[in-house]
């Protein structure tokens, strides 16, 4: 009996974390570019165009600018909370990518409670927004933080309920298991058996990552910039990056749970996964450049009066049907 | 003087918690919205007393853009004052042009050629459409949608290109002169306008699909900011704000000036009294403006564009006073000109509609949510330079 | 029943969100309307009011029509125009002599009049509000608006435009192009 000198699992996690770090950085740049290009084309203008061919280097220039900017802290702010907030917002994001199965091989870590892991760690983001708003010593930021907490806490419930419906059917919290329970053709995916759950999930996901039409915590025409009013330079950059990464996370979960993950017609692999994920991202970005923003009481009404009862009913019907068949 | 003592001298500035009438509670949040805030569209400052996000009191603070336009009139001759009239309201400058030259013409009993009157009607109505387009885009921007303002500016650009042909500029026009207009219309311009009208009519359904019918927008502004007619009367609100409260008052109809009595157009009103009502009134007004333009181009007579012997720059207005009112995009624009017989006016009073419209905000915003206050403020269509003059 | 119907109406109205997406999606596929400025330019600038320029005499393209009546300078609302008349030419010694002789003879001496030409014609473009009063009131039509949309400077002092120098520059350019054309 020998104890392995090299802990294989640990190395795997470290390598995966490194890969995730690179993935996050690259995707941040890509998404900034895509967002601005989509915005431009929706508005019949070219978007970024001058730096590099078709503005391809613009996100790099943006990143350079953000890194180079001076970091400010307003007088009277709580320095600990103020500087902690962007880090708390960003760090859990790296962990969130670990259990996501991009393909059968390309999985950072097989976690049996994968979905639970992700949902637990994504809750930390709320804390960061709260700290940022409270620590800034700014009334706009405080209002934004209040909104962020109320919104995230409220929308997490129907989000969970919609996922639970699928978990009932599969009987596993392991993300890879959920993918394997679906076939390679679209009608074999869970979106066809659970369309209502998908709609609820997607709505909640948009709200959870504070994107238009639910971008109330940073509603710039009401709260100037919401919780990150006082942040400059890379501190703002971290919030920004965390928002985009959270978008990727929710789209990845949607892909895994509802759209068949890496499986697809003709062949299966990471390519299908990324295609589906980016399509969902594109839709979220498309939302932003189309819709006005809802009011805060409407936002909560949509949650408590529509999504939550619908989610519960969906879950009940699923459980009932599971029992019969 | 210590800061505290200085604050106490400023009665009513309740940003320092120095209230003229103290409220019932002490645990409220005083929030300074503006002078640099994205949705006040300029340098309007509104001091809000909040309970959570509910507004207990709102107080507009103005004067950050005061440029002494009325005083400047006293040191310039009537013609030299024309550039100022393009800068009072930068979104509908031609209406201010008209109000001022109208007062001068009334005082000096200057005849205006018929063609000039028609040219004025055409350009002012085009300018009204551009003004409403900017309002439309900016209002939707206030409500959180980014794209519509670009579409609105796309169409506005078309119009600015057209208006640039006779006026020579794109924003601050000084095109009218006492006794006519400075340049005649060209064939290019008329052709362009006739092409624009069907193009814009085909764009309106897109606006309706994208914005007016959107359920998020409707839920945002329906039954928000209800302004009863009585409040409008009390504050002297005019224009789309008054018409959105159900009163069909329009200076073009109520006291027809120029050739407006020859055209057939409707005065859109709305019975809902809310922000959506004012929205619908403005959208309907764009359509009516196009109707007026069509009729004016059809009936455009031949003749000079400015009367012979029009006032020279050093022209002395006869002793007396005159008042002239026109319908601007934001309401009734009035110019009261008093002359003592010299080249410079003795006194000039500008009645700006936005000032009256903004004044009722304090009363309407009370008890609403912060996002609603933004929606109400936007629906009043404020142009800050016009408030402060 | 009213509440139920209202709820149903809300669900039906959700269709408007899809319609909105259709509109932006349609324009996403359209060509954009922006003019890429340094590479392309717009062509509707012939009525644009740029800085003033002087209209040359038809015989001499380096000299303006201006007769220095000062209508533009005195009537400008912003005081943007500085106009200085040319001084009378200094009499040569022979002329002085002749003058003195004439004086001695008791004749009336006619002094040489200053020519009706501007010595300096400066428009401070930072003050100008482009109202057009100077252009309309020029009795000989010597000033007009240029349509120089791309006029820009980096220093405030550069905004004081010496219109005479600019006129001469333009005349020189015209000659150059003319000679090039002739050569060709």
Textual characterization of the structure:
Chain A is mainly α and 325 residues long. Chain A has one domain. Helix content of chain A is 67%, strand content 0%. Chain A is built from 13 helices and no strands. Chain A starts with 7 loop residues before the first helix and ends with a helix. Chain B is mainly α and 389 residues long. Chain B has helices at residues 3-9, 69-73, 82-85, 93-108, 114-142, 147-167, 187-212, 215-221, 229-235, 240-243, 251-254, 275-298, 353-359, 361-365, 370-379, 384-388, and strands at residues 29-33, 45-51, 54-61, 176-177, 180-181, 320-327, 332-339, 347-351. Chain B has a 3-stranded antiparallel sheet. A 3-stranded antiparallel sheet of chain B has the order 6-7-8. In chain B, helix 5 (114-142) runs antiparallel to helix 6 and helix 5 runs antiparallel to helix 12 (275-298). Chain B is globular, with a radius of gyration of 22 Å. The mean pLDDT of chain B is 85. By secondary structure, chain C is an alpha+beta fold. Chain C has one domain (2-176): 2-Layer Sandwich (Alpha-Beta Plaits), CATH 3.30.70. In chain C, 39% of the residues lie in helices and 11% in strands. Chain C has 6 helices and 5 strands; from the N terminus they run ααβαβαβαββα. In chain C, 17% of the residues are buried.
Summarize the structure.
The complex is a heterotrimer of chains A (325), B (389) and C (184). With 325 residues, chain A is mostly helical.
> Rg of chain B to the nearest angstrom?
22 Å
Structural class of chain B: mainly alpha
Which segments of chain B are poorly predicted (pLDDT under 50) over 5 or more consecutive residues? none
Strand residue percentage of chain A: under 5%
Q: Going by CATH, what is the homologous superfamily of chain B?
A: Cytochrome-c3 Hydrogenase, chain B
| Arithmetic mean of pLDDT of chain A | 85
Structural class of chain A: mainly alpha
Largest sheet of chain B: 3 strands, antiparallel
Q: What is the 3D shape of chain A? A: globular
Number of domains of chain A: 1
Estimated radius of gyration of chain A: 20 Å
CATH topology of chain B, anyone?
Cytochrome-c3 Hydrogenase, chain B
Assign an overall shape of chain B.
Answer: globular
Overall number of strands of chain A: 0
- The CA-CA distance between the termini of chain A, in Å, is 48 Å
Give the percentage of residues in beta strands of chain B: 5-15%
As for the number of domains of chain B, it is 1
Q: Helical segment tally of chain A?
A: 13
């Amino acid at each position: 009996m020998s104890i392995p000198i090299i802990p294989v699992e640990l190395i795997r996690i470290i390598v995966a974390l490194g890969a995730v770090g690179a993935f996050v950085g690259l995707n941040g740049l890509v998404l900034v570019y895509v967002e601005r290009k989509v915005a431009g084309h929706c508005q019949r203008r070219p978007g970024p165009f001058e730096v590099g061919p078709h503005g391809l280097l613009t996100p790099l220039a943006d990143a350079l600018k953000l890194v180079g900017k001076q970091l400010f802290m307003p007088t009277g702010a709580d320095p600990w909370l103020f500087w902690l907030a962007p880090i708390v917002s960003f760090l859990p994001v790296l962990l969130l990518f670990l259990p996501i199965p991009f393909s059968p091989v390309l999985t950072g870590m097989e976690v049996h409670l994968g979905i639970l892991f992700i949902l637990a760690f994504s809750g930390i983001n709320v804390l960061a927004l709260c700290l940022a708003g409270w620590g800034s010593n700014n009334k706009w930021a405080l209002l934004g933080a209040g909104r962020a907490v109320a919104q995230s806490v409220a929308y997490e419930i129907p989000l969970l309920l919609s996922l639970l419906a699928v978990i009932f059917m599969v009987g596993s919290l392991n993300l890879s298991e959920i993918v394997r329970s679906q076939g390679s053709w679209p009608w074999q995916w869970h979106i066809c058996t659970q369309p209502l759950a998908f709609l609820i999930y997607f709505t909640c996901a948009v709200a959870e990552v504070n994107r238009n039409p639910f971008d109330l915590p940073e509603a710039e025409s009401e709260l100037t910039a919401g919780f990150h009013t006082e942040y400059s330079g890379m501190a703002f950059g971290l919030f920004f990056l965390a928002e985009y990464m959270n978008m990727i996370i929710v789209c990845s979960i949607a892909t895994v749970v509802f759209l068949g993950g890496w499986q697809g017609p003709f062949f299966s692999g990471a390519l299908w996964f990324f295609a589906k994920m980016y399509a969902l991202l594109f839709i979220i970005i498309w939302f932003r450049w189309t819709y006005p923003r809802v009011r805060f009481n409407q936002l909560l009404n949509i949650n408590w009066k529509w999504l939550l009862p619908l989610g519960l009913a969906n879950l009940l019907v699923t459980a009932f049907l599971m029992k019969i068949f | 003087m210590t800061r505290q003592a200085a604050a106490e001298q400023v009665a009513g500035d309740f940003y320092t918690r120095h209230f003229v009438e103290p409220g019932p509670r002490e645990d409220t949040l005083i929030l300074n919205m503006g002078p640099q805030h994205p949705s006040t569209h300029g340098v309007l400052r509104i001091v809000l007393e909040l309970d959570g996000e509910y507004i207990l009191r709102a107080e507009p603070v103005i004067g950050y853009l005061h440029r002494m336009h009325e005083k400047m009139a006293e040191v310039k001759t009537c013609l030299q004052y024309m550039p100022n009239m393009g800068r009072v309201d930068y979104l509908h400058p031609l209406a201010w042009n008209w109000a001022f030259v109208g007062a001068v013409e009334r005082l000096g009993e200057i005849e205006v050629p018929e063609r000039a009157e028609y040219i004025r009607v055409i350009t002012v109505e085009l300018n009204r459409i551009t003004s409403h387009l900017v309002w439309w885009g900016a209002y939707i921007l206030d409500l959180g949608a980014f794209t519509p303002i670009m579409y609105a500016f796309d169409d506005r650009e078309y119009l600015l290109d057209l208006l640039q042909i006779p006026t020579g500029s794109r924003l601050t026009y000084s095109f009218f002169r006492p006794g006519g207009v400075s340049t005649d219309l060209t064939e290019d311009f008329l052709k362009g306008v006739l092409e624009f009208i069907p193009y814009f009519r085909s764009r309106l359904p897109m606006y309706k699909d994208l914005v007016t019918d959107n359920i998020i927008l409707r839920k945002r502004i329906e039954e928000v900011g209800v302004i009863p007619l009585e409040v409008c009367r009390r504050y002297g609100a005019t224009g789309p704000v008054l018409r959105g409260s159900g009163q069909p008052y329009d200076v073009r109809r109520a006291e027809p000036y120029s050739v407006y009595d020859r055209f057939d157009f409707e005065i859109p009103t709305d019975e809902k009294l809310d922000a959506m009502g004012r929205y619908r009134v403005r959208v309907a007004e764009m359509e009516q403006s196009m109707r007026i333009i069509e009729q004016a181009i059809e009936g455009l007579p031949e003749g000079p564009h400015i009367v012979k012997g029009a006032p020279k720059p050093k022209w002395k207005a006869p002793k007396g006073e005159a008042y002239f009112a026109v319908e601007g995009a934001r309401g009734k624009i009035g110019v009261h000109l008093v002359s003592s017989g010299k080249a410079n006016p003795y006194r000039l009073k500008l009645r700006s509609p936005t000032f009256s419209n903004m004044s009722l905000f304090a009363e309407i915003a009370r008890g609403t949510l912060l996002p609603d206050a933004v929606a109400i403020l936007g629906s009043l269509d404020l142009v800050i330079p016009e408030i402060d003059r | 029943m009213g509440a139920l119907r209202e709820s149903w109406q809300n669900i039906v109205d959700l269709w408007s969100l899809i319609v909105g997406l259709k509109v932006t999606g349609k324009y996403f596929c359209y060509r954009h309307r922006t003019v890429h400025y340094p590479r392309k330019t717009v062509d509707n600038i012939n009525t644009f009011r740029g800085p003033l320029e002087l209209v040359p005499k038809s015989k001499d393209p380096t000299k303006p029509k201006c007769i220095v009546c000062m209508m533009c300078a005195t009537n400008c609302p912003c005081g943007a125009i500085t106009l200085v008349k040319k001084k009378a030419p200094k009499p040569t010694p022979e002329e002085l002599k002749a003058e003195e002789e004439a004086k001695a003879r008791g004749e009336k001496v006619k002094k040489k009049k200053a020519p009706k030409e501007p010595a300096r014609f400066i428009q401070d473009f930072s003050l100008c509000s482009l109202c057009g009063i100077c252009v309309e009131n020029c009795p000989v039509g010597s000033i007009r608006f240029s349509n120089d949309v791309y006029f820009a400077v980096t220093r405030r002092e550069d905004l004081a435009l010496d219109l005479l120098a600019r006129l001469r520059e333009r005349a020189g350019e015209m000659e150059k192009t003319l000679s090039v054309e002739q050569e060709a």
